[in-house]
Amino acid sequence: MVKSLEARLARLALKGDQSAFAEIVSLYQDKLYHMAYRMLYNRQEAEDVVQDTFLRVYKNLDRYDDTMKFSTWIYRIATNLCIDRLRKRKPSYSLDAESSEHEGLDGYSMIPSDNRTPESETLLSETQRIIHQAIETLPAKYKSVMVLRYLQDMSLQEIGDVLDMPVTTIKTRVHRGREFLRKKLEHKL
Amino acid sequence: MNCNVAIVWMHDYLDGELPRDDMAALKTHLIACPSCRSRFEQLQQTEAMAFGMVGSGMDAVLDEKQSALLTERIMSQLPAKRAGKPNAFAAWIRKHPAVTVAAVFAFVMLGSFTTMWEQNTQLSVSGTDLAQVVIEGNTVTIPEGARVKGDLTIENGKANVLGDVDGNVTVIDGQLYQASTAHIAGQTKEIDQALDWFWYKVTQSISKLAY
User: Fold this and answer.
1) B25: closest CA among B13, B38, B14?
2) Is the pLDDT at A81 greater than 60, yes or no?
């Protein structure tokens, strides 16, 4: 059996070859960041997730099972980290509610600044903004499925492998998630 | 066609999983049903927009400089050196759980037997008829002219047989002296080895169970 490029790199990295690991990082870093950003909508957190993912990959290289696709494995680690973060955010506080501890401050001022000027957002087309908002408001369990499907262009089977769920469940979630997006976009289409 | 079925099929179609025959049936329904048609159009547009978000959005994609910075950060936080294969043993254990369990079990059993073996340094005498047996220190004496009925077992002591024993005499971890006047009707047995002792314990407990 011909081993995938990633599997070979993983083997080299396991033997202590740092440049092989750097190769893996360069293959996946941007894809993982994009996915994490769409899940978390926060630049700092997305970068942290990417960093944690690679750290875990590095530490667990010896446990990587060749029978699984490397991408499935790395996405599984990354989505789990994202889902953990989304869960930890709960209970969610309303952004408009005034904080009891810091008088005069509401939730917006508590959000870590994205060091992005508002103008940059206006560069996005209106439709892009709408779809981003719609996906942002998806409940976490649909969000992970939808992000993997639309952003990473994964098949239902692959998504099932990444999230370790039966394909039938993934299918149901894609259908519901799509209906959810449709309703959000209904008035704007 | 029922509209509810049509909606499920629409999703299957967008997933690329609708069989060809059903596609035709869905098409006929869409031509006939305007509400399903508009729903299908909306879903298609949603799908197209969702797929279109790839590469869009400022924060969502890292530019080259940011990407390089992140790579640097990732590489610098890695533990300095993988210690080669430090856990070959641990990996082997993880791969063979049954063998590991068996080995641990054997180890624990061996440990408990050896402690039992070593702890047993107290003299103990057992038998059916001990009235005529004389015990001094760790020496068990059956005086001349005395007659012990049944078996006699002595652990951790010396047996000094001068009289008669009707049954078997077993000495564990000790010595057996027989005077010329002694008469033992049954068998005599001395057990010193751990294996013999173990076997004796096992047969004893089995025969105890049997009666």
Assistant:
1) B13
2) yes
Q: What is the pLDDT of residue A20?
A: 87
Domains along chain A with CATH numbers: 1-89 (1.10.1740.10), 119-189 (1.10.10.10)
Residue B54, in any domain of the structure: no
* Count of alpha carbons within 13 angstroms of residue A80, beta-carbon side: 15
Say how many CA atoms lie within 13 Å of B62 toward its Cβ: 25
Angstrom distance (rounded) from CA A85 to CA A45:
9
* Residues A62, B91: C-beta atoms closer than 8 Å: yes
Would you say residue B208 lies in a domain?
A: no
Q: Which domain holds residue B24?
A: 3-49
pLDDT bin (cut points 50, 70, 90) of residue A51 is very high
3-state secondary structure at position B190 = strand
| Coil, strand or helix at A151 | coil
Determine, for residues A128 and B56 on separate chains, whether the beta-carbon distance falls below 8 Å.
yes
Is B133 within the bounds of a domain?
yes
Whether residues B74 and A51 touch (CB distance < 8 A) is answered with yes
Q: How high is the pLDDT of residue A82? A: 92
Is B56 within the bounds of a domain? no
Say if residue A100's pLDDT is above 50: no
Sheet holding B183-184, edge to edge: B147-148, B164-165, B183-184
- At A91, list the tokens: 């209970």
CA triple B142-B148-B151, angle to 5 deg: 105
ipTM above 0.90, yes or no: no
Residue-by-residue DSSP string for A9-20: HHHHHHTT-HHH
Measure in Å the smallest separation between the Cα of B46 and chain A Cα atoms.
Answer: 6
Task: Kindly report the nearest CA distance between residue B102 and chain A, in angstroms.
Answer: 24
Give chain A positions within 8 Å (CB) of B74: 25, 29, 50-51, 54-55
Domain count, chain B: 2
- B148 with B129: CB under 8 angstroms? yes
